[in-house]
Each structure stands twice: as C-alpha cells, then as structure tokens.
Here is the input.
Amino acid sequence: MRYLTKQLGAACALLCLSAGLYAGNAADNLQVQDIYVRAVPPGQSNSAAFLSLTNADQTDHALVAAESSISKVAELHTHLKEEGMMKMRRVERIDLPPGETVKLQPGGLHVMLIGLTKQLSPGEDVDITLVFEDGSRTALTAPVKTVQQTMQHHH
Ligand SMILES: [Cu+2]
Here is the structure.
C-alpha cells in the first residue's frame, strides 16, 4: 500500500511537470505596469506594493503569492467594508482573467509587506517577486513612492 502511494505520487509529479511545460506560462504572459512600494515613516513596520497586471494570455491565471527581501512576510490583501469600516483581509489568490487588467491600488487589492527589514525612503528601488498559480515567477524592481492616500480609513 505504501509502495502504491509512492508510485501514484511519482506519476502525479510527472504529469504535473509536463502539464506545466505545455500550458501557457503565467509569468511570460502577464504584463506588469506602474509597480511601486509605499514609502513609510521611520518606525512603521508594514508597507504595501501596488501594480497593474494585464493577462495577455488566452487562459485564466492567478497571482498566489509575493516575496520581497525588504519584509519578513509578503501577503496578498484586499480591502473590505465591514461595519462601516474599511478593513484589510488576506486573500489566497488574485484572479487574472484573460485579456483583463487587474489593478492593485491603495484602498483595494495590494501586496502587504509585513515586518519591514529596512526603512523605505522615496526614490529607492526594492525587489518584489510575484508567484503565479502555475509556479512561474516574475522578479521585479519597484520604486519607493510617497502615497498621499492613507490606507487606514478609520481614524
Ligand atoms: Cu494589507
């Protein structure tokens, strides 16, 4: 029984690998525009990255994770209105329908950078890697910018 499970696991790994080779690669078919990271005042431990993603492929893709060397954790977030207040919620994935542009912008979807490992000053460049549902990745450089609109709507 144990042997069988192992065999099935191996077969699946092979199938998944070949499927990945022949299907459209998300990273190659997604255009990233207007990427930037929000500058934060000294002492603040979180920031966010914003960008536009256009799916130039014929098939659905999805952003499932992000990574950066400037924070301990990077999560995909959205804003939802709850009890009259805008609150951030983690999302498992951001769907990218074919032919459409999905905007990650202040007050909406964003890449949350939690536990900053360095101070973010405007004009600096930082690294962000996007990870898609098929395992493909895009490494990007994002400028740090001052965002006027605050992310907390509940002062
Ligand atoms: Cu957030």
Summary: The CA atoms of residues 45 and 115 lie 5 Å apart. The chain is about 15% helix and 50% strand.
